[in-house]
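We keep the chain:
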Amino acid sequence: MANPIRASARVLTASLVGTSVEFYDFYIYATAAALVFGPLFFPADSPSVQLLASYASLGVAFVARPVGAWAFGHYGDRIGRKSTLVASLMLMGGSTLLIAFLPTYETAGWLAPLLLCILRFGQGFGLGGEWGGAALLAVENAPPGWRGRFGMMPQLGAPVGFIAANGLFLILGLSMTSEQFFAWGWRIPFLLSIVLVGLGLWVRLKLSETPAFARVLEEGPPPAVPLAELLRKHWLVTLGGTFGAVACFAVYYLATAFALGYGTTTLGIDRQLFLSMQLGAICFMAVGIVLAGWFSDLWSSTRVLSWGCVASAVAGVLLAPTLVSGSIPAIFAGLSFALFVMGFVYGPLGDWLPGLFPARVRYTGVSLAFNVAGILGGALTPIAAVWLAEQGGLIWVGLYLAAASLLSLLALIALRKRGPAD
């Protein structure tokens, strides 16, 4: 029998490449928000206030993501996965490209941050339909016994996109002065996104529809309003799936966006050095995702996610002492452990979340649960972490992560007896 991965190489490549492009677009904004958007778009007397306003603009996309999840989920469950994924990629890429041409507050006043937030909303709206569709593209084409390994492919787009985004920022920082980077260099990653979007479209336009969606059409007409059917028949599972995914967002945004801002401002660590540490640490996340995918097929995605939540709570406890130590090796070790753990609360989601919903409303259910979890675990986390660090120190930031991990663990326990929806 042929290797299932080799036989489905095009599907897996499309799943990986598309999410890599989407996460690249998303991460260049997060990195720019931590490094330059504060003084460029949100002038204030205090650097902490600037950083807080910049993180608030980062959170705009998380508000947009559930709206995008509803819109793209509606069409993904009615007209198919392929065309919906192409549309989400084009919206995300267009919004990212336009950010490169934005005026700053100095030249346009209040219009500059308004336009920035509008385009950030467009990014989030597009990403709202991206991950769910990519996960379905993978798992709905997976042969028996391979759902975990196929389902991990969209998640690998996260470290790939992060390495591309932050690697480019690192190269720019090394090749130009701080004044040049602040004046115009930060725009280059947003301009280059058009090349990656073109690559993603080229791969996705060659795909055919998934077998699961084809069966839905054979059995009868698709739901007229997928969201209404989802909330009427599957609201409890949607709620559990949402809380089950909170931990992965909390871990990630504390170890990347918050840690980068805190390390380069409060701790005074050189920006290029901290970016280099994060680039090394993100490789551990990729390893964690791959291992989690394999273990999900050996055991179950629920079991792997549960142990990942326990490890995430431990990462929260270790966060404060590693960061405040001021030791570069200790900080790198803490970041690496947190992102390795992130792989175990993120990698199995591509198998676990689709398994909660029937194919008729699966695109809507997966996208809605994932993106609402992004608000609870991602949008609020950097803002809350900055406030907690100023009020009570980093120990409270670590406890915040432990609480988010416990919330996800309780949701997993509540849903642990549920088998695949189809």
